[in-house]
Design a protein that fits this description.
Strand content: under 5%
Order of helices and strands: HEHHEEHHHHHHH
CATH superfamily of the largest domain: GntR ligand-binding domain-like
CATH class of the largest domain: Mainly Alpha
Distance between the termini: 29 Å
Number of helices: 10
Structural class: mainly alpha
Oligomer: single chain
Number of domains: 2
CATH architecture of the largest domain: Up-down Bundle
Strand order of the largest sheet: 1-3-2
Helix content: over 70%
Number of strands: 3
Length: about 220
């Protein structure tokens, strides 16, 4: 059985919620690939459950836009169109720029040291070519920056895009050959935040997202 579909039966949550969360995370983390067919019987067998919670999970995932139903064919993992990437990352660029600007105003020495530590871990993961670590450390870096902004409403808005951004992040890190540009941009962000330069931090953050959009779009267009 696929490890990513292993579910914890000891949890207090209802079975249908466990199945939904497991399948949702598998899509977001790239374990299920865009365009992959989701077959109820096979998924139920893999998770050791009946078809009913799997069917319910697929319906909920369709409502979230993570699954598409094709008439007379079944359920498929939704793809990542260039339009999807553009729309989400345009919004993220604005929010990210604001978060970086506020982080530059509000960061403590401890916040800056935490960002620097993550950048070093990211570099090590890049040297090891460990894609899972790259994804996790990139996510950690941005999460620390958001937290450092000290703006709860902004953090909530950014969090609402978390799942879609994570899908883009997975698609990106599983395809790119070099992370040098990202490392340089992370370093520039840390320098701007440490130097309390809010305008530079905003500009670097917006450029960083624009770079991500360009690279992800080029990846999707090559498929």
């Amino acid at each position: 059985m696929d490890n990513f579909l292993k579910i914890d039966m000891d949890t207090y949550k209802p079975l249908r919620e466990i199945v939904f969360t497991t399948m949702r995370e598998a899509i977001i983390n790239g374990d299920f690939k865009p365009g992959q067919r989701l077959m109820e019987v096979q998924l139920a067998d893999q998770m050791g459950v009946s078809r009913t919670p799997v069917r319910e999970a697929i319906r909920k995932l369709e409502l979230e836009g993570l699954v598409v139903m094709v008439p007379r064919k079944g359920a498929y993992v939704a793809g990542l169109s260039s339009e999807d990437v553009k729309e989400v990352l345009e919004i993220r660029a604005v929010l990210e720029g604001l978060a970086a600007s506020l982080a530059a105003r509000n960061a403590t020495e401890k916040d800056v040291e935490e960002l620097k530590d993550i950048v070093e871990k990211f570099k090590s993961a890049a040297n090891e070519q460990d894609v899972v670590k790259l994804i996790n450390f990139d996510s950690d870096f941005h999460d620390v920056m958001y937290r450092t902004s000290k703006n709860k409403k902004l953090i909530q808005l950014i969090s609402s895009l978390r799942e879609q951004v994570q899908r883009f992040r997975v698609a990106y890190f599983t395809k790119i050959k070099s992370t040098q540009q990202l490392i340089e941009e992370h370093n520039q962000l840390v320098d701007a935040i440490a130097g309390k330069d809010s305008e530079r931090a905003r500009a670097v953050a917006e450029t960083h997202i624009a770079t991500t959009e360009k690279l992800i779009t080029s990846i999707e267009e090559k498929k």
